[in-house]
UniProtKB/TrEMBL annotation:
Gene3D superfamilies: Aspartate Aminotransferase, domain 1, Type I PLP-dependent aspartate aminotransferase-like (Major domain). It comes from the Bacteria. SUPFAM superfamilies: PLP-dependent transferases. The keyword ATP-binding does not apply. The lineage of its organism: Bacteria, Bacillati, Actinomycetota, Actinomycetes, Streptosporangiales. InterPro entries: AspAT_Ic, PyrdxlP-dep_Trfase, PyrdxlP-dep_Trfase_major, PyrdxlP-dep_Trfase_small. It holds the Pfam family Asp_aminotransf. GO terms for molecular function: DNA binding; L-aspartate:2-oxoglutarate aminotransferase activity. Keywords: DNA-binding. This is DNA-binding transcriptional MocR family regulator. The keyword DNA-binding applies.
Amino acid sequence: MTASRDYEALVQRGLKLDLTRGKPSAQQLDLSDAMLKLPTTTKTGAGIDARNYGDLQGLKETRELFSAALQVPAGQLVVGGNSSLAVMHDTIVFALLGTMPGAERRWAEQEVTFLCPVPGYDRHFAICERYGIKMVAVPMTAEGPDMDVVERLAADDPAVKGIWCVPKYSNPSGITYSDDVVRRLAAMPTAAADFRVFWDNAYAVHHLSDQHDQLADLLALCEEYGNADRAFVFGSTSKVTLAGSGISFFGSSPANVEWFLSHTAKQSIGPDKLNQLRHVEFLRDADGIAAHMRGHAAIVAPKFELVDQILRKELGELATWTAPHGGYFITLEVPNAADVVARAKAAGIALTPAGATHPYGQDPDDRFIRIAPTFPDLEELEQAIYGLTVCVRAANA
Ligand code: PMP
């Protein structure tokens, strides 16, 4: 009965804590304060006035800055606005309404199914749901999506046009795809000639320690296996510099980049190049990015350690959870996840809704809870995670 007594005591405390979204803390945003005074020049490397219209693909120096991190040659990168999610959304819309390289017809004229490794990112699923793209869940393993399942579905069904992947420090499991999984994604036969891997490399440089996961180069492998147009790479500086004022990226084969730009050319006369210059001046080069990310790790890693410590002490055998080497999330697997989340809500601890990790918000095993530890300070985080463990024990008493 201590579980229900502890829960009653938790509710009595009247907490108001939020573990829902993977937002950087104010302390992390402060790391980029110097950016607010940049750029010091408005001339680009090519001698163009960055204040004016133009340069749809983005500045060469900005593309060069992120080329290595995103594993895309600078000539095949496009720099976008402040949100990579917007770029992913628009790419789906462009595919629905315009014919992609290798496609016979627009996706809007046919049934389209996406493979969705679970647990996965709810905002990817929301885009599919909004545009009537059918989603099929594929289980994740410790190495990435279960490739036996992916290969079978992609080979059998021409309606299967794509797969969502967060390949490094994944949202929400934190795992990094193994070389074998990446190779199989690049090499597998697909029934649809216009199959695309939506490679959302949102956490490419977001290590928590000196132990860096290595990710194989999907774009290069696709080319090597004769599927050059298969990969759409996305990324952003939302969790590098300023979440609301960063820059985003689209990278792919030359044919896909031309197709993508043919659409964005109708959307805009050119991107915010002052922000691109600001990022180049502030981060400088790959070493500059790495040094800046060590500043984030110093703030974020203790939060991940604290969560792990509390879960180990309080839950032990009752649950399993991930201990990622980077990224923004820990996945907690517990029985009766929906009940746990509801109890936490009643106790003033907001968690991402149970099921959000799955297409249509439905986790058939009712097990997955995404923990986002970055935003609260250590004291609030300790209260929230301890409270969460009380809810887990109460829901499984
Ligand atoms: N992709 C993933 C996997 C994310 O976790 C997030 C942020 N939670 C985003 C994209 C959103 O990125 P952006 O701010 O560039 O739109």
